[in-house]
Design goal:
The protein is mainly alpha-helical. Helices cover 62% and strands 6% of the residues. It has a two-stranded antiparallel ribbon. The N and C termini lie close together (12 Å).
Length: 216
């Protein structure tokens, strides 16, 4: 009986969104244990740092192999319609990458201190209650880090594909650019839908959706 009452008394940190996977990406919340707040942010932070390293490697590679003149803009047909110097490309992409690192890095920190009146989240009555605020802030920070990681991978892909177009000599962007952009947009859409429908669903709804054995 003691175990049953403990299970019934969980407040959502144990089963916050009812999904079975890990934290910070469509599929779970990772806060099933008492140290979930610290552990849950770890994978998201690791993904963000890894993506930062990937874009840095992409820019460094481009600096070593790109010709002096490179395409800087592509039209609807994927043909380059503006060219410039290699330095212009590298500085531009480095600036974009650095801006994304600063933006998402600062947001993931700021959201832990942001006034709750500025936070718009599904089921706000549940998540803005005092016992759930720390978990709400943690989840928001994790989600921002994952979105930032995906955005940095997009930037890295743009650097690689632009450099390849420059090396090919015809200034034509690979059709893989469409695949890259489509994958990024699909991920962002999936993340938004998951956040709206499952990520911040109150625990009583999530446990009910799992069936009669949830929480055992």
């Amino acid at each position: 009986m003691a175990r049953s009452s403990d299970a019934a008394g969980t407040d959502g940190v144990t089963r916050g969104d009812g999904a079975p996977g890990g934290d910070g990406a469509p599929g779970g919340d990772g806060a099933a244990r008492g140290d979930g707040a610290a552990r849950g942010a770890g994978p998201a932070r690791g993904a963000f740092v890894t993506s930062t390293a990937v874009v840095a490697v992409a820019i460094a590679w481009s600096a070593t192999v790109a010709p002096d003149q490179v395409p800087l803009h592509f039209g609807p047909g994927l043909d380059a319609d503006r060219f410039g110097s290699r330095d212009e490309l590298l500085l531009g992409m480095a600036g974009v990458a650095a801006g994304m690192v600063v933006l998402f890095g600062l947001l993931s920190v700021a959201v832990r201190h942001l006034p709750l009146d500025l936070v718009n989240v599904p089921h706000a009555d549940h998540w803005k209650a005092a016992p759930h605020v720390p978990e709400l802030r943690r989840r928001l920070a994790v989600d921002l880090l994952h979105l930032g990681a995906a955005t940095l991978l997009l930037v890295a892909g743009v650097v690689v594909l632009t450099t390849q177009a420059a090396l090919a000599g015809d200034g034509r962007l690979s059709p893989l650019a469409g695949v890259l952009l489509g994958a990024y947009l699909a991920y962002v859409l999936a993340l938004c839908v998951w956040m709206a429908t499952r990520r911040y669903r109150p625990p009583q709804d999530a446990v009910g959706a799992q069936g009669p054995h949830a929480g055992r």
